[in-house]
């Protein structure tokens, strides 16, 4: 189409190819609203260049859609990196896994005798020292140490996979429960 294309040709093009272009834009944007915005931006550029386009304008619109989508992805990634809201290369811990782990630990704790459960909760969840735990329980520090040791051993046994005879290879990692904050075994 040489020189200037009439507006009627633009209207005919949009009537014939509007839906397929919208589907492409939706796929590129990831949502209907985003696709509509993307197609509208591409069509705005088409209207500005309408008089200079020769031949079928669909190629121009599709190329513009792809370029605008890539620009949007780059801009979104750039903003996320600048704002620090979402790590672009290192995903954070999965919250569902943390909830599942906590649930598993609580179930294991319920299988311990009350005194062992109390020591584990006070020492490792409440983060009390051995002396503070002994005072809270009304017993000696040596009793707290011995009870904690037995409780941790029992937790390892309970959390070991059924087909694994070695209790050291437990399914649920209890790193915070295996030693006191000073680094020596409890």
Q: Characterize the overall form.
A: rod-shaped
Regions with little confidence, pLDDT below 50 for 5+ residues: 177-186
Q: Average pLDDT, to the nearest integer?
A: 78
CATH topology of the largest domain: Arc Repressor Mutant, subunit A
Straight-line distance between termini: 84 Å
Level-2 CATH architecture of the largest domain = Orthogonal Bundle
* Strand count: 0
Query: Main sheet, how many strands, which sense, barrel?
Result: none
The proportion of residues forming helix, as a percent range, comes to 55-70%
Secondary structure tally, helices: 7
Q: Could you tell me the radius of gyration in angstroms?
A: 32 Å
CATH homology superfamily of the largest domain:
Winged helix-like DNA-binding domain superfamily/Winged helix DNA-binding domain
- Give the tally of structural domains: 2
Structural class: mainly alpha
Strand content: under 5%
Element string (H = helix, E = strand)? HHHHHHH
CATH class of the largest domain, anyone?
A: Mainly Alpha
